């Protein structure tokens, strides 16, 4: 696999980075509109599963931060030939991103129609349990490869700090809330958390980034950017 050399120190943002960001941001917004307007057939494609325009505004504003955390490092359409752009940013990015926008239908097909909350996880049937186990194995395998690549790029310590620190923070908040609330990890949360970590210039990392980005966009546009903690009384 091809792996670009990445230094410990962050480089200045170039004009190529801004061009890449512009194209990527348009892709992000297109994905949101496609799910809301085409797949969900809403009259107003700015609206998610929640009323109002809050979720669209958050996607549009938070997107740039996530781009410079992850996609900036491996999404470089301005630095390659037309053939490379088609191969890297077409086949390895646009295609898996577009497929992930159809997660609702893919989930139906493979039996993944369950949520990551305690009540659902305790009542999974054998098919759903198998799907969940396979998904966990895939994520662990992806992260194992990426930890190796982070080590080679001399960014292992900050990489693993954020990778482990965010789940630890979520766990700590859940412990503090205690029995009054329960944790519900929406699939948009999982996608938005993981995709910036898939930041290396190789096929596997690009495909993984695009897939989890599509998963996040689909979840937000279809269902809305709902909270992760819910009152146990309303369970």
TrEMBL record:
It comes from Novipirellula herctigrandis. This is Uncharacterized protein. The lineage of its organism: Bacteria, Pseudomonadati, Planctomycetota, Planctomycetia, Pirellulales. Keywords: Membrane, Transmembrane, Transmembrane helix. The chain crosses the membrane at residues 18-36, 56-73, 85-106, 126-149, 156-178, 198-217.
């Amino acid at each position: 696999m091809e792996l670009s050399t990445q230094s410990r120190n962050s480089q200045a943002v170039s004009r190529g980075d801004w061009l890449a960001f512009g194209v990527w941001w348009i892709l992000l917004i297109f994905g949101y509109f496609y799910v809301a307007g085409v797949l969900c057939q809403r009259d107003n494609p700015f609206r998610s599963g929640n009323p109002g325009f809050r979720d669209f505004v958050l996607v549009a504003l938070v997107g740039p931060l996530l781009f410079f955390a992850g996609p900036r490092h491996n999404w470089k359409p301005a630095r390659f030939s037309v053939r490379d752009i088609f191969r890297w940013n077409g086949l390895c990015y646009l295609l898996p991103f577009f497929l992930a926008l159809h997660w609702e239908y893919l989930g139906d097909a493979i039996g993944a129609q369950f949520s990551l909350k305690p009540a659902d996880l305790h009542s999974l049937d054998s098919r759903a349990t198998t799907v969940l186990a396979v998904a966990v194995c895939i994520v662990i395998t992806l992260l194992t490869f990426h930890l190796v690549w982070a080590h080679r790029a001399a960014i292992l310590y900050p990489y693993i700090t954020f990778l482990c620190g965010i789940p630890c923070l979520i766990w700590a908040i859940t412990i503090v809330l205690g029995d009054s609330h329960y944790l519900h990890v929406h699939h948009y949360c999982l996608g938005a958390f993981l995709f910036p970590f898939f930041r290396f210039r190789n096929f596997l990392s690009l495909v993984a980034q695009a897939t989890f980005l599509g998963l996040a966009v689909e979840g937000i546009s279809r269902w809305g950017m709902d909270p992760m903690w819910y009152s146990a009384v309303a369970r």
